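Lecture 7 notes: from sequence to structure.

We start with a single chain of 174 residues. Read the sequence below before looking at the structure.
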Amino acid sequence: MLRWIRFFIDLCLLKAAPQDAPQSLVMRNLSILAFWSVGVVITLFGQSLFQSVLLATVQTALLLFLTQLALWIRKFPERSVQTITALMGAETVITLVAIPVLVWLGDSQTSLQTLLNVIWVLLIVWEAVVTAHILRHALELPFLAGVGIAMIFIYMSFAITLRIMRVMAMPVGS
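Now the structure, written as tokens:
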């Protein structure tokens, strides 16, 4: 277990690549479960339990779909297990790092609000860089192409999440 945690940390520090992950369905499934679980936890700061579960499920399904689609387009479906393991595990690590920042951001009384906003933006940039790193290896593309695909993944996640949150906030009958 410690070896897996170390792998995900190294991945987030760009010291490991998705092909370094074992071809393990157990590790992939645990990574998916961890990603979904921290997704529920982080959205609980502003949503009900039902909404958090729904949003985490949609985000998990979206990342799985986009990853499979990208691998299919590039004709690398055999890389699915390792790529999904890497993406889900890395996202989990970054989200765990983001939770304290999100808690502090929610405290409107803090004098560190500007610093926390900068840290939040840096976390999003870190997420994009790590996702790009994983995708460039998995898809055999230049790093900038990985950045472009990572930005599409992140944009789609934000756009769909915001749309769902707006729909959930609408009064019944609207």
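The chain is about 80% helix and 0% strand. Keep this in mind for problem set 3.
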